[in-house]
Write a structure and sequence with these properties.
single chain; mainly alpha; 3 domains; two-stranded antiparallel sheet; 1% strand
């Protein structure tokens, strides 16, 4: 599954948590967690282009083998806890989901469309399709936003007057400010407020998102702060640790250099 998902290590965490909560065993879930960022198509192509075809193939084989081994080890270590969890899952009644699959797919396509075009960067030149999209990206985002409003009403069954009322500050920000980011930030705030008053599925989505944010953001902020103080910037350095020390520790290809880079890199992940 990881080969078809272009996800980073941060993005794969909610997916891992989701499939584990939905009933997947710890072993397969850990295997997915490990292999997802390592064997996606973009990572494989980039590795092969930068480091060579042989290392690209080695990455694929190594990631798959190690992910399976790690999944089996985690299953063996926590086999008692997983057995108790499996018994507990049998006690939960099956939920009836009357929503057609195409509605769920449509809702997520809208969310992905907003994500893609809101982060659309400028192209290499001022002409061409990419530049044309960049010049009109906020108009395109607004169209996706209208689609999201319709999805909230007709797919997630939220109150139409609440969705309409929450859109008023967004429209005002779009009309009376020249910076589209103000309107976009306002829409994020209003959507959060709207979902916070919902005690059904949309509210549960917000609760899960907030739960992941509380777990990840403090570590991410602390990691970036410590990395900036110790290492400085990639271009100019300026950190507490001199660049000569880094070259001395991990500049070669010895066993010590690889071991040191692996151990330190594990603690520097959130940076």
């Amino acid at each position: 599954s990881g080969s078809i998902l272009a996800v980073c290590s941060c993005t794969v965490l909610p997916l891992f948590s989701g499939i584990h909560k939905r009933g997947a065993g710890l072993g397969p879930a850990i295997t997915f967690l490990y292999s997802g960022p390592a064997i996606n198509i973009l990572a494989i192509i980039l590795t092969a282009r930068v480091l060579g075809f042989n290392l690209g193939i080695a990455r694929v084989i190594g990631a798959v083998v190690f992910s399976v081994v790690i999944g089996l080890i985690m299953h063996f270590i926590y086999r008692k806890e997983e057995a108790q969890r499996a018994v507990g899952n049998l006690a939960f009644p099956e939920t009836d989901d009357d929503r057609p699959l195409w509605q769920t797919v449509t809702h997520f396509v809208i969310l992905v469309g907003i994500l893609i075009f809101a982060t659309w960067g400028p192209g290499a030149g001022d002409t061409g399709v990419w530049a044309w999209i960049f010049q009109r990206k906020w108009f395109i985002v607004s169209l996706w936003g209208l689609g999201l409003g319709a999805s909230l009403i007709f797919i997630l069954k939220m109150s139409w007057w609440q969705v309409t009322l929450s859109s008023v500050p967004v429209i005002a920000a779009a009309l009376y400010t020249s910076n589209p980011l103000v309107a976009f930030a306002t829409s994020v705030v209003m959507l959060t407020i709207l979902l916070s008053f919902n005690h059904e599925e949309p509210g549960e989505w917000l609760g899960e998102t907030w739960g992941f944010a509380k777990q990840i953001l403090p570590l991410l902020a602390a990691g970036v702060l410590v990395a900036g103080i110790l290492l400085g910037s990639p271009e100019h350095g300026g950190g507490i640790i001199p660049g000569e020390w880094i070259s001395q520790w991990v500049g070669g290809n010895s066993l010590w250099s690889n071991l040191f880079a692996s151990v330190v890199g594990a603690f520097m992940y959130f940076a």
